[in-house]
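Section 5: illustrative case.
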């Protein structure tokens, strides 16, 4: 039997999933925990320009050892795409090209509604609410994606 020092015998790093709630002014972010079981919110990204936005995402992906990305796809209640869903599809394509990671589009209908409902219960208002609603929407997208994936297997 080979004698291996503890630092050499480390487990391979778990690749986490990053969720993105894409908006024109802010991008809500969430990432799975180290076991890939639950979604945890990250600070909201205030958009400035594409270069800065992608640089922030690159740092986030590296810092959290992200192996795949899920982006909320805003479909109409009928299930049809609209202007914003086409923007999200273009953004997802740019993510794939830039980061060479799997990028999944996941139906986000009602996540913002649910996020606002949760925040109504906390009576949070004003600017702080705008910050939190994007983060919470990303958490809800990621948790729904994890639940969907778990039920598929």
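Designed sequence:
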């Amino acid at each position: 039997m080979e004698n291996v020092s503890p630092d050499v015998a480390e487990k391979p790093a778990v690749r986490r999933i990053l969720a993105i709630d894409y908006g024109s002014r802010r991008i809500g972010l969430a990432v799975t925990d180290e076991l890939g079981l639950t979604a945890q919110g990250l600070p909201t990204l205030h958009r400035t320009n594409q270069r800065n936005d992608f640089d922030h995402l690159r740092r986030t992906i590296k810092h959290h050892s992200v192996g795949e990305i899920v982006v909320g796809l805003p479909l109409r209640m009928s299930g049809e795409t609209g202007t914003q869903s086409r923007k999200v599809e273009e953004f997802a394509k740019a993510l794939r090209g830039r980061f060479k990671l799997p990028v999944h589009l996941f139906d986000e209908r009602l996540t913002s509604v649910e996020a606002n409902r949760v925040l109504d219960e906390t009576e949070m208002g004003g600017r702080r609410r705008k910050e939190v609603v994007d983060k919470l929407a990303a958490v809800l997208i990621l948790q729904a994606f994890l639940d969907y994936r778990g039920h598929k297997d």
